[in-house]
Design brief:
With 324 residues, this protein is an alpha/beta fold. It has twelve helices and eleven strands.
Length: 324
């Protein structure tokens, strides 16, 4: 009998060791979190804060891997082609839904190549101008632009960037004649804004806050739906223009390769939601100027589809196809 029991035990052990990875509890090995931009970028900072907490919670390493290049297309395409097993994720910013529309030959499809997991946070943008500009708030800027067609120029972080496309939406809404001036760096764009070479610029609030606090630029309004905790004295664009809920911001969220099992997506969503409720994580993310803004898989997926359609339509209208 002992011999029989021994044989059964060995057989069972061999059988368990031969089980496929899918049969093991998830997660059972390190998770790779791809950031398609370099170290120190907004996406990278938020990803590392989240990865630290998820590693602690999930009892496996969540390793941030920077895959910079081609405006985020290299790392994003890599994530899209990864196995849909929950062990490769992407920290996706707003550009996930914009870049393919700008490419002559898109390397990924934001809707069909990914499964939405969780929206994590947003960084509001801020309209800034020189301190002695003739407009004191964003509403006055719109009025000034209408009265001076063709004379208002605004800085952007490049064709197809949020600082370009968001202002183009406002241009269309209010029928104003303004001209974009693309820059390769934040430093040059903010310097030319200070000096009045461009009328205004729309960087993220965290990037502009030092210059706002020092008085080198004046902020006309911020793009968050509610006033920012980092600058509660600044009105929102929604307030200024009487557009409740209107938002101009850069968002960050986690997506997985298309076909990732729903139970894995649900597990990740739950773990990320728990992490974002941690006081430590909230404090660290909010110190970057971002606002925690969780959104589950279904709603986040709907948002990605809506944004992809919105930006694709605008890029086509502006003739920007192939600009990247």
């Amino acid at each position: 009998m002992r011999k029989i029991l021994g044989v059964l035990a060995v057989t069972l052990a061999i059988g368990l060791s031969a089980l496929p990875a899918e049969a093991q509890p998830y997660p059972s090995r390190p998770i790779r979190l791809i950031v398609a931009y370099g170290p120190g970028s907004g996406a990278d900072i938020v990803a590392r804060i989240l990865a630290d907490k998820l590693s602690e919670q999930m009892k496996v390493s969540v390793v941030v891997e920077n895959r910079d290049g081609a405006g985020g297309a290299i790392g994003t395409a890599m994530a899209a082609k990864a196995a849909p097993d929950g062990y490769t994720l992407l920290m996706a910013p707003t550009t996930l839904t914009v870049s393919p529309s700008m490419m002559k030959e898109p390397t990924y499809d934001p809707v069909n190549d990914f499964s939405a997991v969780t929206k994590v946070a947003v960084q509001p943008m801020a309209a800034v101008t020189r301190p002695d500009a003739p407009y004191k708030d964003f509403k006055e800027l719109i009025t000034y632009a209408k009265a001076n067609p063709g004379k208002v120029m605004y800085g952007t972080s490049g064709k197809g960037s949020p600082s370009h496309l968001e202002v183009e939406l406002l241009r269309q809404r209010y029928g104003i004649d303004i001209q974009d001036v693309p820059y390769k760096s934040f430093g040059q764009a903010i310097t030319d804004t200070m000096n009045g070479l461009v009328s205004f610029y729309f960087p993220t609030l965290p990037a502009a806050l030092t210059h706002i606090n020092s008085g080198k630029v004046r902020s006309l309004a911020v793009g968050s739906p509610q006033r920012s905790p980092q600058a509660p004295q600044l009105p929102t664009i929604a307030e200024e223009l009487g557009l409740p809920g209107y938002e101009i911001s850069v968002w960050y969220g986690i997506v997985a390769p298309a076909g990732t099992a729903k139970d894995i997506v649900a597990k990740l969503d739950s773990e990320i939601s728990t992490a974002l409720k941690s006081p430590e994580v909230r404090e660290r993310i909010e110190k970057t100027g971002a606002i925690i803004s969780p959104m589950g898989p279904d709603k986040f997926g709907e948002m990605i589809r809506a944004e992809t359609s919105k930006w694709d339509k605008l890029v086509q209208e502006l003739g920007l196809k192939g600009a990247n």
